Amino acid sequence: MTFDLGVLSGYWPELVQGLGGTIWLCAAAAAMSGVLGVLLTIGQRRGAPWLVALIRGYTALTLGLPLLVLLYVTFFVLPDFGVLLPAPLVGTVTLAIYYGPYVAEVIQAAVAAVPAGTVEAGVAIGMSPVKIARRIIAPQALPLLLPTLTGLLIGLVKDSALLSVISVHEFMFAAKAVVSDTYAPLEVYFVVAMVYWAATSVIHLLTRHWERRLGRARRVTLPR
Fold first, then answer.
1. Are 205 and 26 in contact (CB under 8 A)?
2. pLDDT tens digits, 115-161
3. What gap in Å lies between CA 59 and CA 55, rounded to an integer?
4. What are the Cα distances from residue 106, in Å, to 34, 113, 143, 213?
5. NCBIfam families given for it (predicted)?
6. How many Cα neighbours within 13 Å face the side chain of 199?
7. What is the pTM of this model?
8. For the residues 65-77, what does the mean pLDDT come to?
């Protein structure tokens, strides 16, 4: 068996287009899961008992399911109930639904780790809840959030490859199409592996740099 990347000479545009689809899908899913995680956190901390119970049930159900099963349910089962959505939208929303509870759990853990004394000091000097969240809780919680959120983002990027099973035109889907045309799985999947490794490595390095900057520069200072 020979290894020759030359067999891909006419297929690079197709692979690049698939990579672009993956980037957009991951960006949208990450943003949606972040918003969902914040809403779930607020609901559990400030919601009515019935809402808290509903969120906990949703969280337990989602965390106990493999992503692939959730994809099959949203793509193949929902149409039986008259819910017909485009495959890219189904894939993006499913990733957000799956990762949202993880984000919420991370946020809650980071907020719980913020010293209660700093929050009480903010209340004592008359700061509003919004100011307390922005000026006291966020600067202390963000450095605690970053390492775990980085891992979740990397997991989301890698799991996006599963969207090819529901015919979402992303990087892995494009790679499979190229393999079917070239009969060169070694070369194609080598490129795929290197691209995913490079993407996750860049995410890791950027967030580590941000984490170090936050660790040096961000300190909570209560206004006078």
1. no
2. 888 888 888 888 887 888 888 888 888 888 888 999 999 999 999 99
3. 6
4. 11, 11, 12, 21
5. HEQRo_perm_3TM
6. 20
7. 0.88
8. 92
Collapsing DSSP to helix, strand or coil, 183 comes out as: coil
Q: Would you say 11 and 181 are in contact if contact means Cβ atoms under 8 Å apart?
A: yes
Q: What is the pLDDT of residue 12?
A: 94
Answer whether 176's CB lies under 8 Å from 12's CB: no
Q: Where are the domains of the chain?
A: 11-217
User: Which residue type, as a one-letter code, is found at position 36?
Assistant: L
Residues 74 and 215: their CA atoms lie apart, in Å, by 41
Q: What angle do CA 68, 85, 37 make, to 5 degrees?
A: 60
pLDDT tens for 171-208 read 999 999 999 999 999 999 999 999 999 999 999 999 88
**Measured between alpha carbons, how far is 47 from 53 in angstroms, rounded to an integer?**
10
| CA–CA gap between residue 108 and residue 5 (Å, rounded) | 47
Strands (E), the chain: none
Euclidean distance between CA atoms 94 and 96, whole angstroms: 5
> Which residues lie closer than 8 Å to 91 by C-beta, 6 or more apart?
25, 29, 71, 75, 160, 163, 166, 168, 170
Mean pLDDT of all residues belonging to the chain? 89
